Amino acid sequence: MGLYHPTREEIQIADVLHALSDPQRLSIVCKLAHDTEPRRCGGFELEVTKSTLTHHFRVLREAGVIHQHEAGTARLNSLRREDLQARFPGLLDAVLAAAKLATAMPAGASREGEPKASSIAPSAA
Questions:
Q1: H or E segment and range at residue 69
Q2: In what order do the strands lie in the sheet with 66-71?
Q3: Overall pTM > 0.90
């Protein structure tokens, strides 16, 4: 039995956003966005267990973010860029740009004009 992949029409925004909300899964998507060829599951260099990595790939696949196919004993992954663009124009590009910006900023930094999270005092209610 093959792996489940939703059709383009079945891809739901809530599932995609949930899949992209995890930093490990977002890292996988960012790496796939720069690849011209499908990448093996073991080629992502994430510091998680194999079972956790399998879970992340399943969430991404079932949300319609990636496509997986088997080649011998390997599972190859590719980004479903065209399907995501057709369903939610601009979403993937916006997420990738935000992820790039977030990784370029030092921890605890804020964009110009925005208060740092640590400098915002909780309101007394």
A1: strand 66-71
A2: 39-40, 74-79, 66-71
A3: no
